[in-house]
């Protein structure tokens, strides 16, 4: 553990604040997940959650890989809170198709880091979720 954040093969695991009394393995709902964070981070996570629902109102929320996930015809996106950033995981296609808009952020294959000390680009998040929704809908079997 480094600065309250667990490291696993170079990747950090979400919500491992050293002052948290609840581990992610115990969390069953997105509400519980958000409430496990410090008060200053909760509104950011809640707004991100609302933004995903605005873009995909029929998406089902769940906890998967110990973080919030949204599914509709498959996984749309995941997000996770960390000490200094919010991790947003729209799968590789969700980052590849928005490379220019994501250039101000640290991004990898299927992952984006939004720093907590800057406003989150909620409009961009909404565009990415709508893209993923359209992508998943085109894969839907009839």
Can you describe what's shown?
There is one protein chain. A six-stranded antiparallel β-sheet has the order 3-4-5-6-8-7. It has helices spanning 30-35, 42-55, 91-96, 99-102, 122-139, and strands spanning 7-8, 11-12, 60-64, 67-71, 75-81, 85-89, 106-108, 111-115. The protein has a single domain, classed as Aspartate Aminotransferase, domain 1. Strand 4 (67-71) and strand 5 form a beta hairpin. Mean pLDDT is 85; it is low at 1-13 and 15-22. The longest helix has 18 residues, at 122-139. It has five helices and eight strands; from the N terminus they run E-E-H-H-E-E-E-E-H-H-E-E-H. Helix 2 crosses helix 5 (122-139). The protein is of the alpha+beta class. Helices cover 34% and strands 24% of the residues.
Provide key terms for this protein.
142 residues; alpha+beta; Aspartate Aminotransferase, domain 1; six-stranded antiparallel β-sheet; two-stranded antiparallel sheet; 5 helices; globular; disordered N terminus
What is the 3D shape?
Answer: globular
Uncertain runs are 1-13, 15-22
Strand content: 15-25%
The proportion of residues forming helix, as a percent range, comes to: 25-40%
Query: How large is the count of helical segments?
Result: 5
User: Which structural class should the secondary elements be placed in?
Assistant: alpha+beta
Span between termini? 47 Å
The number of domains is 1
**Topology as a string of helices (H) and strands (E):** EEHHEEEEHHEEH
What's the overall average pLDDT, rounded?
85
């Amino acid at each position: 553990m480094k600065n309250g954040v667990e490291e696993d093969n170079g990747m950090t695991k979400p919500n491992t604040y050293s002052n948290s009394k609840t581990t992610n393995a115990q969390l069953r709902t997105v509400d519980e997940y958000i409430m496990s964070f410090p008060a200053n981070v909760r509104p950011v996570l809640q707004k991100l959650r609302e933004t995903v629902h605005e873009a995909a109102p029929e998406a089902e929320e769940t906890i998967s890989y110990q973080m919030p996930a949204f599914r509709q015809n498959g996984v749309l996106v995941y997000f996770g809170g960390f000490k200094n950033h919010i991790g947003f995981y729209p799968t590789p296609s969700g980052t590849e198709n928005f490379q220019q808009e994501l250039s101000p952020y640290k991004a990898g294959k299927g992952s984006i880091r939004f720093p907590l000390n800057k406003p989150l680009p909620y409009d961009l998040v909404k565009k990415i979720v709508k893209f993923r929704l359209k992508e998943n809908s085109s894969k839907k079997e009839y």
